[in-house]
Write a structure and sequence with these properties.
The complex is a heterodimer of chains A (688) and B (540). Chain A has 688 residues and is α+β, with helices and mostly antiparallel strands. Helices cover 50% and strands 17% of the residues of chain A. Classes of the chains: A alpha+beta (688), B mainly alpha (540). Chain A: Belongs to the cation transport ATPase (P-type) (TC 3.A.3) family. Type IA subfamily.
């Protein structure tokens, strides 16, 4: 199992600010630009096709209703029937628009991806070792191709020979080049990326048309979008409501006839369209597309919407310790002087040893010297004259030669150490830390302890997750004692120490047997089985093809902490659906108060008491309700695309909040909305 | 004591009595369906019917059992009515007409007990006792069995077995309904309810019809049946002689549906889950009682259609309870209620009979509604919705939706056609909005298997006999099939563990949500129709 990733190292400040952003709670959202409405207009018109409408039962009913009313409006035109007919068609149009806008945002992304899909020419190796030039589209799985500096990698595959720097910005947006080499966990390359230096031989692992970029394009365009299980269940519920309202409206006509107040088809259709859950029906697919889109904006690709939904349900999060929860053994936390050596002197020597050391470890040593011993973090002019001795694989140490002093730090094996120092070194190793021995002119002065340090903000994040009902389990190769200490510091709920890939797999199985859903990240080939077994497996883009194939999401930034954001996006997706459904149904109350008195006050004047909005005339009341019903769709498009606000909190608190906003709000809003619209509508001659 | 105080005392006594038996009865019923042992009588029945009491059934087999048993019951009831003239104790009441036999057979098998006939003029003692009374027991036991099967769906995990319908049926009848009915009958006799095999009794030279009333009265209420032995039902002095018998009958019709929430809590291993359902039932029941009571007390002619010995409170309490359970017995004429009061009894039925509903049917109906409510709530907390540790996916929502759709569908289609049939005008006592209330009430009563009559509408023509018969049939068995399918898919699932992210279903938040869902679904579905009936009446 591999834990570290080779993503570009961020400075602690950068990372801290990222975390601070994340701790801002709200899952950030894409910005909605009203111009998109205009741009998506042609697409929206295309969606009037009945075959397209059939996919959405609620809107199909509106579509059929609009058609029906059109026939009646043509046969018996009046200002009222024409206005109602127009607004019913607008209702369908606005629903189409919502979907088109959501899709349009993906399309832009897909277009930029397509540009990377230049028709690359591949240099395929034949069996006798010679090269032949073939179009990239002719490549088959197992083909070996040569790629040299400046060339575009023609297809997805694994490096089987050589090492090279690769520019993956076309896919990840990250401009810093990454290293790809044969063997190990950094062997995967993606078609469409460019080799910047050296020469590699790539073994093709996917068929043309099914490459990563192809899949990405299909995903962001929503071409392969299938309804997710939860979306299907919700559609069934919405269809049920639609059937109930159809029954209620259809049965109303005989009751009206019995009561001596037969209603026109136009009025009945208007009532039906107002009652059925058009708001959520119109926005449902936009919400789903936007959910995927929010992931893409965070550089995460999900293979299916199902995986995004599952992310919202996660009960257990498996997080690798190193790289996710901690920085790795990169920070100096203690200087331990050998007996007879003054600690102050040790600190001064340690500082000198690391002045020219630009590695994160080196910088952390200087920081500790400054914090604990008050030593300057900057090299003086004099100190700059020293000769820096860089680290090499042979010597396994680095240091500085200054004024005849040879100062070195490095692995213990490179020094002649006393038993006492050796014991210190062993102890640090046993605790899961990394010991660096420091010597001046071959005299060992002491040991630097490099420890695992928990990233800032992790404790708060885990507390949030706990409030959401998610248990975090830290997975580490450390011994149980070390693991426990770090687990305690990081605030995770549980840990798996001395973990082997089998252990990770067993843990996932055990959790799943208890009915829990498990999410994890991974990048190595030996992570692949666990990634496949987990309910949400996020593969790092830097990982192997096997890992990417096994997981159901790929994080292009290769940032393991992103799992937490993914969970939040999954929840936000479901909450948006639930909130808008509640809002949609709650709206009906006001519509009854608007339309029923309008329909029947003529036969039972007492029913006019229900006209609490004091709408001007029956026609203006009905038309106002229809207009409100259509406009609310447009008004809610930004919300559907952004998703409703989500703050990690307990289920009860979330429900209370959303019921208040979308339930109570859903009851009140249309009263105000219909009343306002009526003030305008009543001015139309023939209606007011 | 003023009538108001007397009424409140009655309510107090009723609630106290229910509270006393709530735990023991609820726990006892839970044990009945969990027990591994069979009594000798039961074993004899199983041997006779060649049933292996330990053989567990899939949901579909369970459903076939329910449907088969009910079908045989309908055929049997139909036949004995049609050949009544050759049966003993028929008092020359002759064969029952075809339409009426059809309607009555369905009515009693579906636990509706809608009566399109005048019992003392049409049914002899034999049909009453071996036909109708037997169905009073077993139709209630069928409801109980289906409810228990649904609860097992929540309790069990990763199995396709829901228990054995025959065992649940036999136990429900023999261990629960029979002993309780026996005790209740004796208590009712003490209060003055009659018990006689004679056809009538001479009162001052006038022959007043009589029957073995007490034994049938007990199960009529206890099984939430409601079919009276005498036409005036519980308004008749032989069925319901005084305030005490009135209160006892109200107690009897509420007791099992109420205690079943305790049984439910016991079976799912968390009594609070049962209390919260009881709370929701109680809140709606109390609210509707208040509406009906206040409306009647302030009516133009408050005592019209009510028995003086029960008064307004005794009538309102009975009316609210008989429509809130699916009983349908009446001790006053709901047709004479005010627009609001009568509308209240109608609304009680339109809620779908779950406040607290019929024996078994009340529990499974409110659980179905809880599933719908939790589906929406689950979405709003950002998780795949779940209830009692079971995920609510496509299958569960579909089954719940079908179950909920059945009643409004048959009700609105039936009432819609009835409203425009020319023959209907002649069947109505009242024109206009009140006439529409009468039609709606009749179809609501049939579709919800309530069986109470608004009266004021003559339902003996072929259209009413057959359409109301079909409403009862579909209103009963479509939900039952859907509920059993739901139980099957729930039982097949793993149980999801409770975490901090799980929405608790034991607190006031869930209770509010469920109450809201029940009221909202009924209101949204029926407000247009009600606007032309009771609402128009009430606003006058």
């Amino acid at each position: 199992m591999t834990t570290t990733t080779n993503r570009p190292q961020r400075t602690p400040d950068e990372v801290r600010s990222r975390h601070a952003e994340n701790l801002g709670h709200q899952v950030g959202a894409g910005i909605f630009d009203p111009k998109q409405l205009l741009k998506s207009f042609p697409d929206a018109l295309r969606k009037f096709d009945p075959r397209h409408q059939l996919r959405n039962p609620v809107m199909f009913v509106v579509w059929v209703g609009s058609l029906l009313v059109t026939v009646f409006a043509v046969m018996d035109p009046s200002v009222f029937t024409i206005a109602v007919t127009l607004w019913l068609w607008f209702t369908v149009l606005f629903a189409n628009l919502a979907e088109a806008v959501a899709e349009g945002r993906g399309k832009a992304q897909a277009d930029s991806l397509r540009k990377t899909k230049k028709d690359a020419v591949a240099r395929r190796l034949t069996e006798d070792g010679s090269e032949e030039r073939v179009p990239g589209t002719d490549l088959r799985i197992g083909d070996l191709v040569v790629v040299e500096a400046g060339e575009v990698i023609p297809g997805d595959g694994d490096v089987v020979e050589g090492i090279a720097t690769v520019d993956e910005s076309a896919i990840t947006g990250e401009s810093a080049p990454v290293i790809r080499e044969s063997g190990g966990d950094r062997s995967a390359v993606t078609g469409g990326t460019t080799v910047l230096s050296d020469r590699i031989v790539v073994k093709i692992t996917t068929k043309p048309g099914e490459t990563f970029v192809d899949r990405m394009i299909a995903l962001v365009e929503g071409a392969e979008r299938q309804k997710t299980p939860n979306e299907i269940a919700l559609t069934i519920l919405l269809s049920t409501l639609t059937i109930i309202f159809m029954l209620a409206v259809v049965a109303l006509q005989p009751f009206a006839i019995y009561s001596g107040g037969e209603q026109s088809v136009v009025v009945l259709t208007a009532l039906l369209v107002c009652l059925i859950p058009t708001t959520i029906g119109a926005l449902l697919s936009a919400i789903g597309i936007a959910g995927m889109d929010r992931l893409v904006q965070r550089n995460v690709l999900a293979t299916s919407g199902k995986a995004v939904e599952a992310a919202g349900d996660i009960d257990t999060l498996l997080l690798d310790k190193t790289g996710t929860i901690t920085w790795g053994n990169r920070r100096a936390t203690e200087f331990i002087a050998a007996s007879g050596v003054d600690e102050r002197r040790l600190a001064e020597v340690v500082r000198l040893s690391s002045l020219a050391d630009g590695t994160p470890e080196g910088r952390s040593i200087i920081e500790l010297c400054a914090e604990k011993y008050g030593l300057s973090a900057e090299a003086s002019e004099h100190e700059k004259t020293g000769d820096f001795v860089p680290f090499t694989a042979q010597t396994r140490m680095s240091g500085i030669d200054l004024d005849g002093r040879q100062i070195r730090k490095g692995a213990a094996s490179g020094f002649a150490t006393s038993d006492e120092v050796r014991a210190t070194v062993d102890k640090i190793s046993a605790d899961g830390g990394t010991p660096l021995v420091v010597a001046e002119n071959d005299e060992v002065l002491g040991v630097i302890r490099l420890s695992d340090v928990v990233k800032p903000g992790m404790k708060e994040r885990f507390a949030e997750l706990r409030a959401m009902g998610i248990r975090t389990v830290m997975v580490t190769g450390d011994n149980p004692l070390t693991a426990k200490a770090i687990a305690g510091e990081a605030g995770v709920d549980d840990f798996l120490a001395e973990a082997k890939p089998e252990d990770k797999m067993a843990l996932i199985r055990k959790e799943q047997e208890g009915g829990r859903l498990v999410a994890m990240t991974g990048d190595g080939t030996n992570d692949a089985p666990a990634l496949a077994q987990s309910d949400v497996g996020v593969a790092m883009n830097t990982g192997t093809s096997a890992a990417k194939e096994a997981g159901n999401m790929v994080d292009l930034d290769s940032d393991p902490t992103k799992l937490i954001e993914i969970v939040e996006i999954g929840k936000q997706l479901l909450i948006t659906r639930g909130a808008l459904t509640t809002f949609s149904v709650a709206n009906d109350l006001a519509k009854y108060f608007a339309i029923l008195p309008a329909m029947f006050a003529a036969i039972y004047p007492a029913l006019d008491k229900l006209n609490i909005m004091h709408l001007a005339t029956p026609q203006s009341a009905i038309l106002s309700a229809v207009i409100f019903n259509a406009l609310i769709i447009v008004a809610l498009i930004p919300l559907a695309l952004k998703g409703v606000r989500y703050r990690p909190s307990s289920a009860s608190a979330l429900l209370r909040r959303n019921l208040l906003i979308y339930g109570l709000g859903g009851i009140v809003t249309p009263f105000a909305g219909i009343w306002l619209i009526d003030l305008l509508v009543r001015l139309i001659p023939g209606i007011g | 004591m003023s009538p108001l105080v007397a009424g409140l005392v009655q309510v107090g006594i009723l609630i106290a009595a229910l509270a006393v038996v709530y735990r023991p009865l609820g726990d006892y019923m839970a044990r009945v369906f969990q027990s591994e042992k069979d009594s000798k009588v039961e074993l004899a029945i199983y041997r006779f019917a060649r049933i292996d009491p330990r053989a567990e059934q899939k949901w579909s087999t369970y459903a076939y059992g329910v449907l088969g048993f009910s079908f045989v019951g309908i055929v049997f009831l139909y036949v004995i009515q049609r050949v009544q003239s050759v049966l003993p104790f028929n008092f020359d009441r002759g064969n029952v007409p075809e339409g009426m036999s059809f309607n009555t057979a369905i009515s009693f098998v579906t636990n509706t007990n809608w009566q399109s006939y005048v019992p003392e003029a049409v049914m002899g003692h034999t049909v009453q006792m071996i036909g109708l009374t037997v169905q009073n027991f077993v139709s209630a036991a069928v409801g109980l069995a289906v409810a228990i099967a649904l609860v097992r769906g929540f309790v069990r995990s990763q199995t396709d077995r829901l228990g054995n319908f025959w065992v649940d049926l036999v136990r429900g009848a023999i261990r629960i309904l029979l002993p309780l009915a026996f005790i209740a009958a004796i208590v009712l006799i003490i209060t003055g309810v009659t018990m006689s095999l004679k056809s009538g009794v001479d009162v001052d030279g006038q022959v007043v019809a009589n029957a073995p009333v007490a034994c049938q009265e007990a199960i009529k209420e206890l099984g939430t049946n409601g079919g009276g032995v005498l036409n005036a039902n519980s308004a008749h002095p032989f069925e319901n002689p005084n305030e005490w018998s009135n209160l006892i009958e109200i107690f009897l019709l509420l007791v099992i549906p109420v205690a079943l929430t305790r049984t439910f809590g016991q079976l799912v291993g968390n009594k609070k889950q049962g209390y919260v359902l009881l709370g929701v039932m109680g809140v709606i029941w109390s609210a509707m009682l208040t509406v009906i009571w206040v409306a009647e007390a302030n009516g133009l002619r408050p005592l019209e259609g009510k028995e003086l010995r029960f008064g307004i409170s005794g009538s309102a309490l009975f009316a609210n309870s008989t429509t809130g359970t699916s009983t349908g017995a009446i001790n006053s004429l709901h047709d004479s209620f005010t627009g609001l009061g009568g509308g209240g009894t109608l609304l009680n039925m339109l809620f779908g009979e779950m406040t607290p509903g019929g024996v078994g049917t009340g529990l499974y109906s409110i659980l179905v509604m809880a599933i719908i409510a939790m589906f929406l709530a689950g979405l709003m907390v950002g998780r795949t919705p779940e209830y009692l540790g079971k995920k609510l996916g496509r299958k569960e929502v579909t089954a719940a939706a079908v179950s909920i759709l059945a009643m409004p569908t048959v009700l609105l289609i039936g009432a819609g056609i009835a409203a425009i049939l020319p023959s209907t005008q002649g069947a109505l006592n009242n024109p206009g909005e009140h006439g529409l209330s009468e039609i709606l009430y009749a179809y609501a009563s049939a579709s919800n298997n309530n069986g109470s009559a608004f009266a004021g509408i003559t339902v003996t023509n072929d259209w009413f006999q057959s359409s109301l018969g079909l409403c009862m049939l579909f209103g009963r068995f479509i939900p039952i099939i859907a509920v059993l399918a739901l139980a099957g898919s729930l039982a097949a699932q793993k149980k999801v563990p409770v975490t901090a992210g799980t929405l608790p279903t034991t607190g006031p938040l869930f209770a509010t949500l469920l109450t809201g869902a029940i009221v909202l679904v009924a209101a949204l579905t029926f407000v247009p129709a009600l606007a032309l009936g009771p609402i128009a009446e009430a606003l006058l």
